[in-house]
Write a structure and sequence with these properties.
The structure is a single chain. The chain folds into 4 domains: 91 residues, MazG-like (Helix Hairpins, Orthogonal Bundle), CATH 1.10.287; 29 residues, no CATH class; 50 residues; 51 residues, no CATH class. The protein contains 12 helices and no strands. The longest helix has 25 residues. The protein starts with a helix and ends in a 9-residue tail after the last helix.
């Protein structure tokens, strides 16, 4: 292994040693699960913020999680960090025969199709939907499932059909509401979300990213309410809904005014 990677592995081993860090010594694969997820999301946040130093730091933190889990497995005699690295090297070479072998590919879509076929063969999957983690965020998982199904031809032919499906699911949700059928409302709400994720695939909008942007917008506007009320010397808990709504609408109008139209953005 590279010297720096060896150095990091040695630091991890020292932390886990008899006279190492009490907290690190107590950890297990299970207890580390939240930290692994958190570090992965912090990498995503660094990518979105565009901060080079932040991305470098967060990638290091994520790498440390890989080292940590590998150390735990090594202590039990199951596998080592070297085994992890060796395994992924072999996998990348075998999954890229068009780079490391003599196969020819047409484009990126062809690469993806061949990748999935190789994965299915290696892992002996019973279904094309196998292998998508249940623990993925639900919107991302929904899109991955739809992508898999689409690769074998189970997909809508036209974008207009997907729009129609969204409208159909909305009507079915309204029907559940009219009947005051909570169980049906839950089911139809889920179906509507699935349809919206599918629509996003067809019009090149990522549903998870769209929701994240709306969440950020909500936080921004709500923070403006808190800030203005604080400037008036008023606690938000004592404000009326009308007061909060007035500020919210003003913030929304301000954002809309500041948003450039396509024509304004030209030339």
């Amino acid at each position: 292994m590279d010297k720096k990677l060896n150095d990091l592995a040695a630091i991890m081993a020292r932390l886990r040693a008899e006279n190492g860090c009490p907290w690190d010594r107590e950890q297990t694969h299970e207890s580390l699960k939240p930290y692994l997820i958190e570090e992965a999301y912090e990498v995503l946040e660094a990518i979105e913020s565009g901060g080079e130093n932040a991305l470098k730091e967060e990638l290091g933190d994520l790498l440390f999680q890989v080292i940590f889990h590998s150390q735990l497995a090594s202590e039990d005699g199951r596998f080592t960090l070297a085994d992890v690295i060796s395994g992924v090297c072999e996998k990348m070479i075998s999954r890229h025969p068009h780079v490391f072998g003599t196969d020819k590919v047409k484009d990126a879509d062809d690469v993806l199709h061949r990748w999935e076929k190789l994965k299915d063969k290696e892992k002996k999957r019973d279904s094309v939907l196998d292998g998508i983690p249940r623990t993925l965020p639900t919107l991302i998982r929904a899109k991955r499932l739809q992508d898999r199904a689409a690769r074998v031809g189970f997909d809508w032919e036209k974008t207009e059909d997907v729009w129609a499906k969204v409208e159909e699911e909305w009507e079915e949700l309204q029907e559940g509401r009219r009947n005051n059928d909570i169980e049906n409302i839950e089911e139809e709400m889920g179906d509507l979300m699935i349809a919206l994720v599918n629509l996003g695939r067809f019009i090149d909008i990522d549903a998870d990213e769209a929701l994240n942007k709306s969440i950020a917008k909500f936080i921004r506007r709500f923070s403006a309410i808190e800030k203005e009320l604080a400037g008036r010397g008023k606690d938000i808990r004592e404000a009326t809904l009308d007061e909060m709504e007035e500020i919210w609408i003003r913030e929304r109008e301000k954002e809309q005014k500041n948003r450039k139209s396509p024509e304004e953005g030209k030339g």
